[in-house]
Amino acid sequence: ARPVLSHSTRNGLPDHTDPEDNEIVCFLKVQLAEAINLQDKNLMAQLQETMRCVGRFDNRTCRKLLASIAEDYRKRAPYFTYLTRCRQGLQTTQAHLERLLQRVLRDKEVANHYFTTVCVRLLLESKESKIREFIQDFQKLTAADDKTAQVEDFLQFLYGVMAQDVIWQNASEEQLQDAQLVIERSVMNRIFKLAFYPNQDGDILRDQLLHDHIQRLSKVVTANHKALQIPEVYLREAPWPSAQAEICTISAYKTPRDKLQCVLRMCSTIMNLLSLANEDSVPGADDFVPVLVFVLIKANPPCLLSTVQYISSFYANSLTGEESYWWMQFTAAVEFIKTIDERK
């Protein structure tokens, strides 16, 4: 009886009890009903056996049993306190070890990436003549489709060379994907200015004009500007500095894939902030796009038009469903910004 009574929780006694039952039996019947409701077979068996034993006790014996349990609890109180302190200490140690494990895993990830980068660098150095030939051919092209096709073909050529290299024979699929990403970054870095500014000074001037336009807008456009129509429930989070910080780093990336990921992180940050501001509903496109426009105006990332053209030219065919959706929202926001008149 002691283990069952010690582990039970008193939620109350029934309003109508059998006068022949003592108080403990009434209490156990409540517990049995709960166990039956939860279909806890083990507890049901324990309670039924306990009821059989306790049912033979008179009220005086029941009071003795309850007093004995209470005294046992009192004597064990210091031990319970000790166990609580030990558990708290173990939980603190566990949290510390989990944090250390996260740091070790992060260090391992960085080391693996560095090792992959070194191996890829050795591979590319052996193909330096092919890379220079590719750059020369790329400079001669004028059509965007031809440039995209040549970049894709050359990357596939390098991927094939890597697959045949003895260093990469036993590499895992994850390592191969990391290596392909390093190859892509290295190649795109070599042709970045040619690919990012295909019209050279014309593209630079176009970007500067939009940058100046957005800078003027930033001085007059507020979160409650009539052209944006941001729902009032989201205005408490304005001006969304964390989202601005994400898009401001876009110039640090050279590949269209990395630039797109920067855009996606900004969009994800905005959605998270909107969800926090209004937990009762899921933000939709009508809620998201006005905030995105405002964030772009306040952040005013450089070379915005060239960035859109660069990603559209060299990564459009690789967009997945979710990436395509957020990219469409981003380009729509840029187009809308171009139409806003700062004088109004």
UniProtKB/TrEMBL annotation:
Residues 204-344 form the VPS9 domain. The keyword Acetylation does not apply. SUPFAM superfamilies: VPS9 domain. GO terms for molecular function: GTPase activator activity; guanyl-nucleotide exchange factor activity; small GTPase binding. Its main location: membrane. One of its GO terms (biological process) is endocytosis. One of its GO terms (cellular component) is cytosol. The keyword Secreted does not apply. It comes from the Eukaryota. Transmembrane segments: none annotated. It is found in: Membrane. It is a peripheral membrane protein. Pfam families: DUF5601, VPS9. Keywords: Endocytosis, GTPase activation, Guanine-nucleotide releasing factor, Membrane. Belongs to the GAPVD1 family. This is VPS9 domain-containing protein. It comes from Micrurus lemniscatus lemniscatus.
